[in-house]
Predict the structure.
Amino acid sequence: MEILARNNVKQFGDPSGQPIMFAHGFGCDQSMWSEVADAFAGDHRVVLFDHVGAGGSDLSAYRPEKYSQLGGYASDVIEICRALGLERVVFVGHSVSAMIGVLAVAQAPGLFDKLVLVGPSPRYIDDDGYVGGFGRDDIEGLLESLDANYLGWSTTMAPIIMANSERPELGERLTRSFCRTDPAIAREFARVTFLSDNRADLERVQVPTLVLQCADDPIAPTPVGEYVHRQIAGSQIVYLKATGHCPNVSAPEETAAAIREFL
């Protein structure tokens, strides 16, 4: 189907099991979930996909008017679920996809059974009484650097985002993922990601939710994860031992175990 090709949708695991959908963050693609997703193949219907502009997605499907806000990506998630006939979906979103999941659940609550937010941030910029982790000047500088030289930005930023400097191969993996993303679309997605403010959407979540917070996360520091936890009624928060912003890559076993315990 056109929708499945657009987002390079892949399925495996138990076709009769509860669907679990993994959504990647900015600059990434579905391959970043490979080790975690494999851990659920024995008893879940596993669904992986690429956001438009990333990985093996259909770049011609990109429409600025649709993807100028995260809601456009959330509508893709809903379309994928409906195209596959999924019900009671467990949505696992990393980084910006955590907020995409929040929006998807609010738009189509009947589709989703549970929500897992890995390194979520509803707003990256500090505000009165709110710690997002970045000043506005920081974000503007980041975007200007990305605009000037996307590949250079990727090479510099990927190891910082990944952390775990004693394992440089992890940063190299993230760099390669960044380089597989269409640069023009990435620049627009970066603006949508880092300038978004989805704090008011958190209270709309009405499904059981797990927040996974990494130690020393340079993109979504601990106060941000705790804010998300407080704003989503009845949510749980788990503090991972994993460091950096990508526990799905740096600590897949710990990440999978935390998700499975929640389920």
Q: What stands out?
A: The longest strand covers residues 236-243. Residues 36 and 256 are 5 Å apart (CA to CA).
